[in-house]
Specification:
It is built from 14 helices and 2 strands; from the N terminus they run αααααααααβαβαααα. The protein is mostly helical and 248 residues long. This is HNH domain-containing protein.
């Protein structure tokens, strides 16, 4: 097993577990009035449900069983391999085709489906193991095949939101690339700021993109300091900081 890649895969899976449970929390009805409920749903709720250590253990168990069952070439994916192996670069290009998703899912141990169902992460027939794993596979491929950046010297050893230094960090474009043209056209920021990044763990990275749209991130949340001023981010960082992995 490629240890570094496993850590990335585990983080992607953990992020998806948290996101699915957060979605389930949002859908849970409460006794408040419709107007109050609508206002509450406008912001990301404080994570609730299982303890972070429980989610960490569960995600670690899932990741270990799933990653070890996947093809060796998939486990060892890297930017160098992706760039120099035409066959695999075409096969693993994003978005993943249904054929590739089915092929990867076919490698998964049979008891994984039961575990995901028992935890409420999939609800047959509305959702299945393949639909749950699709963003995990995609996030993993994106993370391990991304070319080195010219601003890698800004890389931190710890996530800039939760401050955990025992999990892999990824770069987050503080001004999302998808809205660069609009940013310049509307004079929101100077051009030299477009490539500024923050180094976030996969879980915090996913949280930031759930908390606001790309346009909102560019206009209002374009520095780590601004992001960390949000109450929902502060609650999230306190919660996720308690996640530790028991195995390496």
């Amino acid at each position: 097993m490629t240890t570094g890649n496993f850590h990335v895969f585990r983080d992607c899976l953990f992020s998806n577990v948290v996101e699915k449970l957060t979605e389930a929390t949002k859908k849970t009805p409460n006794r408040s009035s419709p107007g109050k409920k609508a206002r509450q749903n406008e912001s990301e709720p404080e994570p609730s449900g299982p303890d972070p250590s429980e989610l960490a253990d569960f995600s670690d168990y899932l990741a270990t069983d799933i990653f070890s069952s996947l093809p060796e070439k998939f486990q060892a994916l890297s930017h160098h391999q992706y760039r120099n192996d035409i066959v695999n670069s075409n096969k693993w290009s994003l978005p993943l085709t249904l054929t590739v998703l089915e092929e990867l899912s076919a490698h998964l141990p049979g008891d994984i489906n039961d575990s995901l169902t028992a935890y409420g992460l999939i609800e047959p027939p509305k959702s299945d193991m393949q639909s749950f794993m699709a963003p995990v596979f995609s996030g993993y491929i994106s993370a391990v095949t991304t070319p080195p950046l010219k601003w890698t010297e800004t890389r931190t050893t710890a996530c800039e939101i939760c401050e955990r230094d025992w999990v892999p960090v990824t770069y987050h474009h503080l001004i999302p690339k998808q809205v660069h043209a609009k940013v310049l056209k509307r004079n929101w920021h100077e051009e030299h700021r477009l490539n500024s990044v923050a180094w976030l763990c996969r879980a915090c990275h996913s949280f930031v993109h759930r908390m606001a749209s790309n346009e909102e991130l560019a206009r209002e949340w374009y520095t780590v300091d601004l992001i960390c001023q949000r109450e929902d981010v502060q609650k999230w960082s306190q919660w996720v900081r308690r996640v530790r992995w028991n195995r390496t």
